[in-house]
Amino acid sequence: MSPDDRDDMDQLDELAGELADGGRHAREEFAGRDKPEPTFAMRLRAELLRQMPAAESAGGAAEPSRPLDATGSPVERRHGQRPFVGGDRRWIVQDEIVVAAAADEGDLARAGRRWMGAAADAAKGRSTPLETLPLHVAEDSDEAGHVIPLKAAMRWHIPTRVMPSRFIAAGLAASVAIALLAYGSGVFFTGTPPSDTVGEAIGATLVRGNSTSTLAAGMQLHNGDEIVVSSSGRATLHLGTSVTRLNSGADIKLGAMDATHVTIDQVAGRVYHRVGNGSYQVTTAGFVWNGSGGAFDLDRRATGGGGELVYGLALYREVGLTGPAVQDTVPEGSSATLVLRPDGSAASAPKLVTVDLMTVRDAWLVGNAQQDQRLGLPLGQLASLVSPEPTIEPTVEPTAEPTVDVTAAPTGTPTAAPTSVPVTAPPVAPTPKPTVAGPPNLGTLTIKSNGGGSYTFTWPKYTGAGFQYYKLVYGPWGTTPNYPSSPYWACPGTPSENSWTGTIGAGDYAVRLQVVDTTSGKTIIRAQTPVIRLKVSFVATPPPTVSLGALHVQDNGNGTYTFSWSGYSGGQTYSYYKLVWEDTTSGKTPSYPNGSPYWAVPNVGDTSAGPIAIDPGDYQVRIQAIGYPSGSAYAYAQTTVLTLKVPPPATPTPAPTPTPAPTPAPTV
């Protein structure tokens, strides 16, 4: 007999003990209550106790050792004379005594079966199992000495077959395997937030249609929603299988959102895109960044003159970049810089360079790398930002930053750079690592207020090797501006151009100048000034808009039109013209600063535009000279409004079909 079989029989013994306890409780708790039939009582007792002591009938013939309705097949028993329990159950019946006291034949007859009592067994010298199970007459029984019907009591047990333990072990192993498979596939992974919802929201606003509300964690997101984050807020969105994290000042509009396709319009600010499965597209002014199963960071900032700069970092896997006349791929570990004109077109082809993340290391990238690491996501280039090795910042910033406030006249006196105090590292290694030197200190950046929101920035000339251009970079105060991750106001291309004058919008800025060299394909900061704080509270008031007279139009006769006007010579610096229009049914006056569409963007000095193909309709049209005196579009000059009606193309009249001449009748 195998050990498994012995274990099975031990389990049966335990089950038999529980059934015996159930019978005992039945007799104690239900004595004197509703009385079952005597036959039912005997059968129930037989099953609960699994023993029916043998006895002889009154006639001396032994009663059968099984129920009267059992078959004549031999009784199957197991090791130790334990009864077999299973689907093919057989009764094991021995003599049963149900008489609690001396009973007469009438009582025995009422019991349904006549068995000899314990006295007969004692007379024959037999001991019965009932000697260890004495029965007592209930005090409230109807007639003392009569047959006492048994009362049943039950306890709930799960009705299962007792199976071999090896089968139980196999079942447990299969259950564990199925659970692991389901967990690995994400079926029961409760840590994954639902898609198209807000994971975190601090200081963010939801714009949906014409309504605005505070963005809150757990909100469901819809197509067309716009998320605007304040200058001190942040937000995390779960879109399909991707995670989108918005930094302070970010503004995005949501398009498609499902498990296989997500589209986003990044209007402004910095956003970290952790892409799951499927297609993930981010649009920045007509240029689309495509990623799948990777991670990239996009920063879209306004620049001086009304343009924009979009800086993208491919952090894990490559990122596709497409747009007007652009079809490129940004490899992992590289950056792409787009310089956009005010009309959204690219000023030049995207500039791709290989990037060492330690040179552009900031709190935003480090924070996202740490979150991805906690989620168990692959890090790619981000791994260097969460390395356990100590990191040395490449630039030593001054302890106290000078502040330039427009309300007080600046002295213009350079502030001496503080002396860096060397830090002695503890001798944790036999050979200490050399200290990484940051870019050389170029000197102090000075700022002079010219009034009206105009400022002049001056810095020492760079005389070292590797010069390519200066970058006057800036960011919100409290951050460390660094090219190429930060926007810039000026980019002089010769070492002798050590000043720049421009109009700055209201804000609290951190500013510094850096000497940049990318000739080797890698961004290198050759030198830089300390960070200066610039607080601008004055908003410049632009001069009144000048009239350019009437706008003239010529119909070229082929569905195209040419426009002409008098050029602007008012003395203000403007960026370009805009040929703007509105449908007459809209009731609006065409104006580019107010959001009107346009047909053409003529250059500075142009006095005509065309030929331009225009769809049929009734239009209000004008030309405007657009500049950006305080960071926003402004019309320095404009023409009067021209009403233009473009008729639908004429439908040619079909030539008449000639009538055929009658056929002469044949001559007979």
Residue-averaged pLDDT: 74
CATH class of the largest domain: Mainly Beta
Q: Rg from C-alpha positions?
A: 47 Å
Structural class, from secondary structure content? alpha+beta
> Helicity range of the residues?
10-25%
Give the CA-CA distance, first to last residue: 124 Å
The biggest beta sheet is recorded as: 14 strands, mixed
CATH 2nd-level architecture of the largest domain: Sandwich
Number of domains: 5
Bulk shape = extended
Tally the helices.
6
Number of beta strands: 32
How is the CATH topology of the largest domain named? Jelly Rolls
What does this structure look like?
This protein has helices spanning 3-29, 38-49, 105-111, 118-123, 165-184, 363-374; strands at residues 197-208, 211-214, 226-239, 242-246, 251-257, 261-274, 279-284, 287-291, 295-302, 308-316, 319-323, 326-330, 334-340, 351-354, 403-405, 446-451, 454-458, 469-476, 488-490, 499-503, 507-517, 524-528, 532-536, 546-547, 552-555, 560-564, 576-583, 598-600, 608-613, 617-627, 634-638, 642-646. The protein has 668 residues and is α+β, with helices and mostly antiparallel strands. The chain folds into five domains: 3-132, no CATH class; 160-190; 197-383, Jelly Rolls, CATH 2.60.120.1440; 398-413 and 439-536, Sandwich (Immunoglobulin-like); 546-646, Immunoglobulins (Immunoglobulin-like, Sandwich). The strands form five sheets. Strands 1, 2, 3, 4, 5, 6, 7, 8, 9, 10, 11, 12, 13 and 14 form a 14-stranded mixed beta sheet that branches. Strands 15, 18, 19, 21, 22 and 23 form a six-stranded mixed beta sheet that branches. Strand 5 and strand 6 (261-274) form a beta hairpin. Helix 1 (3-29) runs antiparallel to helix 2 (38-49). The termini are far apart.
